[in-house]
Each structure stands twice: as structure tokens, then as C-alpha cells.
Amino acid sequence: MAQSVATLSAQISERARDPSQTGTTGPNVISLLSFAQQVVNGILADVTVQDSLPLVSRQAIYPIFSNWPDSVRVLSIKDASGRNLVPFRDFAGLRQVATNWPSLTSSAPRSYALCGRDLLIIYPAVATSLPTLTITSAKLTTTLTSGAQTTEVTNDDDDAVLDITEALLLLKSRDLSDVQKIIDRFKTRIEGLKTEPK
Amino acid sequence: MGSQADCQTLVNLLSNGQADTNLFALEYADVVNTLGPMRWHTATSSVNVTKATPLINLPASLLDLITILYDGQALSQLEHRELEVLNSGWRNAVGNPIAYTLDDLPAQAAELYPAPYTSSPPTATAIYVESRSDVLPILTLPVALLVLQREFVRESDHTDVQFGNLCGTLGQLLLTMLEAPENLL
Q1: Contact A140 B69 (CB under 8 A)
Q2: What domain range is A99 assigned to?
């Protein structure tokens, strides 16, 4: 489903009235496409990544980015048997269940909570026979550096990537008259993509 | 890596080199501080507890305290008037802490209630939102756009309010879209 970066780069430069890429060089256009793709997948979470979490005895809190740098947003967590851990709706909910959650232990974790965007709480912690959990997250897409690469998001999501890149190119060239329209188009497109059946 | 350097490269690219490089660090720090309420950069840190002393010093990078863990418990945050209802002599109480207050204290301090026993553990754990020099990589583009907004709406030889505001509109929209409410506190 992915599209060639060279094709997208040429297409968006044409759309931004810079077909020969004199205002913004090819490598810089690719760099902007790369940032745009990361943000679009951060919003839509269509490309996911699975990471392992080997639990540590009696540890309930795990930093996310330092352990899994390609995780943008945790979507689900499974144990080794494939059972989904139940997510707390929010971190405050964990406290309502048990104020002693930091020290509670069990033979297996049942739930998880996110504290902001960079801390994961596994509840309860385990003391012995430590399982490895599988975390599914929205992926931080790979940095694009060459026209020979392809994008990772779907073709539909590529349109949103192009919207952001076009807005950035027009901002850069101070051709501002259409930027607000492109921002509005991007917003509408994202709302449509969010409600579209996957 | 969503480093400050990556943001600066983007700011230079999108401003065609017009942005003042000397002001970048200040504008970047200002944007990072405004991210605090969105709780992107959460962290934990051990803090020292002095026996029979309620006051604890929190990390210098703290923007917003979420909770304090002590002796395996998540402490409740209470206001002075709640502590007064609980115990009119709360300021002199000593025991195993069950709560903390931030009332009338500097940003990087908290007061435990009651003050820890002499036999209490020597550390607590603060869970908080921190100011980071490197934002999460997913935030590089929105943060760069918000830096550009600050740079181009201020009075200078390159002021361009329309450009600055459009950068701000796009940056704020991306941040809002990335902030999935179901995953936040």
C-alpha cells in the first residue's frame, strides 16, 4: 500500500508550485514528508509495532520512551497466553481501585494504566515467575531520508501526509493565501480517516 | 530522536534561516513548558525524606506534580483546610505519611502529612510532569511550529504575524490531534 517517496516528493513540490525543487530541495522535502508521516501515524495509529515487556519483580512503573523508542501511543497489552490486559480509563482510576497499587503483587497482572504519555503502570506487579508481556503501540514511523524509500502508512493516510507537507512548503515559501484552506482540508480528512472502518 | 537540535533544524528550514538562533533555546523552553498540562513528559524520581520533617524537595525539572508514592502507598493530595479538618494540630503530627499538600509552597516542594516517623523509609517517589531538553520525537514538528509562532509574532526585523499565526494554528492542531484524551490522565 505504501507509495514511493520520490513520487510523493515530486508530487507535493508540484502542488506547492516548486516543481523543480529550487525553493525547497529534494532532501528537505523528504525530511518534511518524514515528519508529516510520523505525526499522521501518531494520530491515526494505522501502523503499529509490537514490543516485549519482560516484567521485573515488584516493579509496577515502566518508562515508555526509554524502553520502546518506536512507541508513540500504547494501544493494547497482551500476556503470554494472548489475553488482553484491561486498560484503566485513566491513571486516577487506578488510585480509586487501590491506594496501595505501587506495592500490590499477584501471580499475574490484570490491568494497565497510562500515566501521561511516558509512564506505563502494570497492575498488579508480579513478584515471582515473571511473565513477558507484548505491547502493541502506534509506531513512530522510520525517518525518511531517500527517494528510494516508501512510506509506511496506507495510501489514504498518504493524502494526509501530503496535506501537512504542502502546508509546510507553502509556509516556507511564504505563499500564505491557501495555507488555512489546506489546514482545514487536513482536519476534515483526518476526521474522515478516524471514522473510516479499518 | 526528537531533540532540541532537530527542532532547531526544522525552525531554520521553515524560516529560511530568518529565525534568531540566539532566541531559539528560550522559545523552545517556553513551548515545552506549555506542554505541561498535556502530560506528555511524565517521569518518576526518588526524593529524600528527612525523619520528623514534613518538607520534601521535588526535582528541579518538575512542571506539575501528579502524585507522591511513599512506603508502597499513593498519597492523597490535600489542601490546608482538609488537613485542618483531619487534625487541627496537623503541622506537628508525626507518623506514617498518608497525604501531602502543595499549599503555600514553592513549585518544587511538598509537605508530607504527618511528618515521617524516625523509623520511616528514607525516600519517597514523585510522579510528575517534567520539563525536558529533548521532547518526544513525535512532538518535533508541532513544537518547531509553535517556536516559529513565537519567533515571528514578536517585534523584530523579520516580524510576520500572518506566517507566525499560521504556524501556531497548524502546530496547535497537530498537538491537539496527537493528544488522544483516552490515554491521558
Answers
A1: no
A2: 48-139
